[in-house]
Design goal:
Elements (H helix, E strand, L loop, with lengths): L7 E5 L4 H12 L3 E6 L2 H11 L2 E4 L5 H14 L5 E4 L14 H25 L4 E6 L12 H21 L4 E8 L5 H6 L3 H9 L9 H12 L10 E4 L13
Parallel strand pairs: 1-2, 1-4, 2-3, 4-5, 5-6, 6-7
């Protein structure tokens, strides 16, 4: 399948997990992908395996973002796809939450995506697709993930606002809101039988998702198959958001 043949893409947070799966799927669909992450070792290994380029960047830093988009401009002169996947969590109850912790989450999860979108739009000369990674936690609450949940709620609205702002330029902006996905973080959450039972009790499909399932949605949203879709968040959560009770264990 080569729906993205000739397209140029950036995937942030691409060294592992969902970001790595998205980068791999975009390449499989024909795109040229610049991978970026703070984990240079893992990012370089993946980029070499995919035959693509890697550039280390902390997306919360203006200088790193500028270097990333300058690289794209110098090497390709345009951009067609941006996947704002880089993100962090910060576990803290309200009484223990610090400004430093809150600010870091917002910088990586929200500010970085906002200004990456701005920079990408300037390079999307003939339209394009921007894909943000949100979460079911844009709508659901976890008491000790205040900063993360707030940031994902902000991503939901960032998607709406920029979709409207960029529509006249032919740039579509959408988001994906995963539920529990079997990344390294997901595996740690599912480490014990009790934790596994609790996760599955809130998931009607009775299993967690795979990174490749999120990647397939990203590839769709990046392609012309989604040419009339903008401002939407697709929640890939195994039915969790529609559940008003727990499933039998």
């Amino acid at each position: 399948m080569t729906r993205l043949a000739g397209k140029v893409a950036i995937v942030t947070g691409a060294a592992a997990g969902i970001g790595a799966a998205i980068a791999e799927r975009l390449v499989a669909e024909g795109a040229q992908v610049l991978l970026t992450d703070m984990n240079e070792e893992a990012g370089q290994v993946l980029a070499q395996r995919l035959g693509q380029r890697f550039l280390r960047a902390d997306m919360a830093l203006t200088a790193d973002r500028e270097a990333l988009f300058d690289d794209v401009a110098s090497n390709w002169g345009r951009l067609d796809i941006l996947v704002n996947n880089a993100g962090i969590t910060h576990a803290a109850e309200l009484d223990d939450l610090t400004e430093e912790g809150f600010d870091r989450v917002m910088a990586v999860n929200v500010k970085a995506a906002t200004f990456a979108t701005q920079a990408a739009a300037r390079l999307m000369r003939k339209g394009g697709s921007i894909i943000n990674l949100s979460s079911v936690n844009a709508l659901l609450a976890i008491p000790n993930q205040i900063a993360y949940a707030v940031s994902k709620g902000a991503i939901r609205q960032l998607t709406n606002v920029t979709a409207v702002s960029l529509a006249p330029r032919g740039i579509r902006v959408n988001a994906i809101g995963p539920g529990t996905i079997m990344t390294e973080m997901g595996k740690s959450v599912m480490a014990g039988e009790e934790q596994r039972r609790l996760i599955l009790s809130r998931t009607p499909l009775g299993r967690v998702g795979d990174p490749e399932e999120i990647a397939s949605i990203a590839a769709f949203l990046a392609s012309d198959d989604a040419s009339y879709i903008t401002g939407q968040t697709i929640y890939a959560d195994g039915g969790r958001l529609g559940l008003n009770y727990t499933m039998p264990g």
